[in-house]
Every structure is written in C-alpha cells, then in structure tokens.
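Q: Convert this sequence to structure tokens.
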Amino acid sequence: MSDVHTPEQRSRNMAAVRGRNTRPELLLRRALHGMGFRYRLNVRTLPGSPDLVLPGRTALLFVHGCFWHGHDCSLFVLPQTRRDFWLDKIGRNQLRDRRHSDQLAEAGWRVGTVWECAMRGRASPGVEATTEDVARFLRDPDCREMFFRDTGAHVGSGHPSLLSERFTPVPGRGSNEGVLDDDPR
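A:
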C-alpha cells in the first residue's frame, strides 16, 4: 500500500508532531502544579531534556507517547507500511531513552517515566490517579526509578521491551514486514 499523501504533505504532517507541550504533559503539569509542585521544563543541559525537572527533590519526569517510544500497550500499533523504517526509528528512540535514564541515574537523579496510556485509553487509571502516583514518587526520596502506565505505577519495571525483541521478520513475506513473536501466523 502506498502513502496517500505526497512526500511534501507527509513531511508537513510529521513536522507538526509535537515533542513538547503534548496533551498528556500539559494535563500532568497542571495537576502537579495544583498540588504545589514547582518544576523546570525541558532542561536541555540534562540528558534527554526531561519534560519536568524538580531540582529540590533531585527528581525528573519524562512524559512519553506510547507510539513514539514503542510502549507495549494498546496505544502502540506498528504501522503496516514501511515496517522496517518504523522498527528502526522507534527502536533507536527506545535505546536513546534507556541510555538517558542510565546517565541520569548515574548522576544521582530520580527518574520517573509517565506513559501516555496512564492518562488516556480504556485501561487508563486516569489523570487524577496517575498524578497521585507521581506525587507519591516525587515525595519519596528513596524511590530511584518509577514508571506510570495503564496498569498503574511500577518501580523499576517500565521500560518497554525493545521492538527488535517483540517483532521478528516473517520468511517469504518481504523484508519490510514482521509479526509479533506470539502471533500464530
């Protein structure tokens, strides 16, 4: 299946995808601010430019979109066209995310990752419940790493499995296709 847009239209569409001030990020920021938390936004001197940085608590938060960061949830669907391209692109994002988290942890920061599915979707706990979990993380100086997703908050267990581990090429289907490892095809 070919793309329904011209290359120029596709380029404009992709350029419009925001990396900052996304809806989940704005909802979380507004709720945390209402709870009295104060933070800095997108600190470029830190690896990965975390979305929210709370220097007094040595904590920071990333708010990740499930598609762009390859989260293993109902909001992530690998596109059927140009699968190799998307596997490579999202796989690089995942590796970069892990590298940044490791660098920040080594520098003494407490790292929280809030997945989009924690704030929207059928299985979502919702903005209020997620914000309460995030607030508990921010108040607990002993909690070093936390992930907030559709199944609730998890200590140190929220990095998605790499796409290269979840998808395998299908013999005889062409080089740009793949299926989930547990797919019975």
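Residues 172-185 have pLDDT under 50 and may be disordered.
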